[in-house]
């Protein structure tokens, strides 16, 4: 979670709208947002695999790496939009 918070605030402070993974990565995440959320929720209850496939470049969910960072940033961003 520290990494997600770090990235989120780094981009907010620098005024960046695109993640260092690139605009194509961000677009793929956005297009698959609801499915990624559903798969992450399911993974939370999977005692064998857990959520490890959502973290890191070496794992992919729906053909997208680092999806937990996207979901984490989205989770943080929603409350920030109400301020």
Question: Which structural traits does this protein have?
Answer:
83 residues, mainly alpha, two-stranded antiparallel sheet, 2 strands, globular
Characterization of this structure:
By secondary structure, the protein is mainly α. Helices cover 59% and strands 5% of the residues. The longest helix is centred in the C-terminal third of the chain and has 15 residues, at 67-81. The protein is globular. The mean pLDDT is 78.
Distance between termini?
22 Å
- pLDDT averaged over residues: 78
Residues in β-strands, percent: under 5%
Give the biggest sheet. Answer: 2 strands, antiparallel
Structure annotation, total helices = 4
- Main sheet: strand order: 1-2
Rg computed from alpha carbons, rounded to a whole number of angstroms: 13 Å
Q: Which structural category do the helix and sheet elements fall into? A: mainly alpha
Report the count of strand segments: 2
Query: Helicity, in percent?
Result: 55-70%
Layout of helices and strands, plus pairs?
Layout: H1 2-14, H2 23-31, H3 33-44, E1 60-61, E2 64-65, H4 67-81
Antiparallel strand pairs: 1-2
Helix pairs in contact: 1-4
Concise structural overview:
The chain is mostly helical.
